[in-house]
Amino acid sequence: MISFKQVSMRYGPQIIMKDASLQIQTGDHVGIVGPNGAGKSTLFSLICSSLVPDEGVIQLPKNCQLGHLRQQLYGHHDDVLLLDYTSRAIPELEQIDSDISNVEKQMSTSKGVEREKLVARLGVLMDRFEHLGGYELQTRAQEALGGLGFSEDTFEKPFGSFSGGWQMRAELARALISQPDILLLDEPSNYLDVPAVEWLQRFLKEYEGTLLLISHDRYLLRSLTSSILEIEQGLVTRYPVPYNRYVKEKEERRLQLIAAKKNQDRKREQIERFTERFRAKASRASQVQSRLKQLDKMEIIEVPQNSQSFSKIHMASPPHCGSEVIALEDAGLTYNQSHWVLRHVNLRILRGEKIAVVGFNGMGKTTLLRLLAGAHDVSEGKRGLGHQVIIGYQSQDFSETMPLEKTVYQIVHEANLEMPEQKVRSLLGRFGFPGEMVQKACKVLSGGERIRLAFARIFIQPPNFLILDEPTTHLDIQGRRALEQAVIDYEGAVCLVSHDIEFVSRVAQSIVSIAQGKATRFHGDYDYYREKVQEQERQSPKHSPNTSQQTSGHSSQTRKELSKQAVRKAKKMIDDLEKRIEKLEQKKIALAGGIATASFHEERQCIAEEVGAVEKELQSCMHKWAKVSDEIIEY
Fold it and tell me: Rounded to two decimals, what is the model's pTM?
C-alpha cells in the first residue's frame, strides 16, 4: 500500500500539493489526471524519493520494486546494443549472474564441506535468478520491443543510434519487462503510434501489480484504470470510480460548489447590508456585532477555476469548393531513387470528409500528409487539387510553420499581410489571445496555446481542407476535447494523424492505414477499421501485419531465439519450478494447520495473509511452468 499523510509540497511560492492524504492499495490501477504543470510528475518523484516533501509522511511497502518511466531521458551508454540495454531491466539480475559465475568457478576447485556450502549458495542464487525472471527476460524484451514498434533487425543496433522518441520506447520496454511491484508510467503514449498504444493497452491489462498512470490519453485511462487521482490547484482528490464516471462526478461536484458559493455570497451580502445600515445605531449595536462575528466565522467557499473552460477553438465556415478536394493517382515518393517511402498510392478525398491516417512510426504517415499539402512533390504519379480548394496545413513540428522567436501577432499577420491590425487582433482574441498576449513570443507558449495559434494562423484565410499532423501531442485532456469538438463541427474536409485513439475514434469517418509503403483505405470509422484488421488476422495469422516483425508474440522470431542452449535452460527452469511448487504446496498445508491451532485473532490473520502470499506465488509458478512447457513443445 502507498500512503500519503498530510503531504505538502511547494516550488517557491507555488503550492503543488497541500495537506494531501491518500491510500493506494496493492494491485490498484490508478489514473492520475490534471492540467499540465499541476504536479503529476512531482507525485511520482515523491513516491520514488527523488524529492522530499516539505511536510507530511509517505510510506511504501517494504522491499517493493519500483518501475518508473519518466518524461525525460537521462544519460546512457550509447554504444550498448538495443536488446542488451532493454534486457538489463533488473540490475539485481546482473549481480546474481556474476555471483553464479564466481560460485561455479569456486566449485571446480573445492571439496567436502566447502563444496556443499557452495552448492547450497548456488541453489539460493539460481532460485532468486528464476524468481526474478532471469531465464525469460531476453524473450520478454524481444516481445516488448516488437510490440512497441521495433523491427527485429534493429535489436543489434546501438542504443545511441536511435532518436529520442525511439529511445523512450526502449525505456518503456525496460520498465514493463522488469515486472515491478509498483509501476509508475508518466505519459507512456507520448512517443507511440496507434498500433503501439494498442499493444501497450493489452500488456497493461494483464499487469497484476500496482499501476499509477499519468496520461492525457482517454483511451488508456478508460480501459486500464479503476479509479482516478486528480491533482489541480494544490488539491489532490481521489475519485474511486472509473474515468467515465469521474468526468461526470467532477462536473456534478463543481455545480454543487457553484450553488453553495452563490448561497454563501447572497448571505454575506445580506449581512453586510444589515451591518452597513445599522452600524451607527446604538440600539442595534449588539445585533451588528453578532453579524460581524458571523462573517468572521464563515469559511469562504472557493470554486476552483474550471479546467474544462479551455479556450474554445473557433473555426470559421469553409469557403465553397468542388466535390473532390484532392486526388493522388498511383503516387509515390522516394528521396534517393532506390528506397520508396510510399508507392502506388491511390486516394481521393471528397468535400467534408474526415480521414485519419494510422500506422507504425516511420511507415510514411507524415510523408503522406506532406504530399497532400504540397510540401513534397510526388516522385511518380499525380497529385490533383480540386476546384477552389484552400489548404490549411499544420505540421508535427511547430517551428516549420511558426518560427519560435516571432510573436503571436507576427506569426498570424504574416500569413495575411493585407489584413488590418485591428482585424488580426480581433481574430487572435477569438482564439484566446486578447490584449497584450499578442506580443508573447511563440517559444514561451504552452502546448495548448501553440495549437490555438496554429489555428489562428490557418484561419486568417479560412481553408476548406485541413491537414493536421499530431495536433493532440502537447494538449491535456481538456485541450484535446476542445480540439476534438472543433474538428467535429468543422464543415470542411480533414485529414489528420494522431496517436490519440479516443480522438481518432470520435473524429474520423474513414481510416487510411499505411504499411510497407502502401496506403489502404477503410471506408468506415476506427471501430470498423479494427474489426476488418482482426478479421484479416484470423484469416491469415501468419501474414497479418499485426503479427509481423513489428509486433510481439511467439512468432518465428521467438522460436529462432529458443536455441538448444535456451531449451536446456528452459528444462532446468521447469525442474526448478516443479521443486518450488512442491515446497510451496507443503508450506501452504503447514500454514493452514497453523490457522486451526492459533490462539489469537491477530495471529490467525497474520497466518492467513501469509497463506495468501504463498497462494499468489504458487499461481505465478504454475503459470510460468505452463508457459515454459508450451515454448519447449512449440520449439
Answer: 0.69
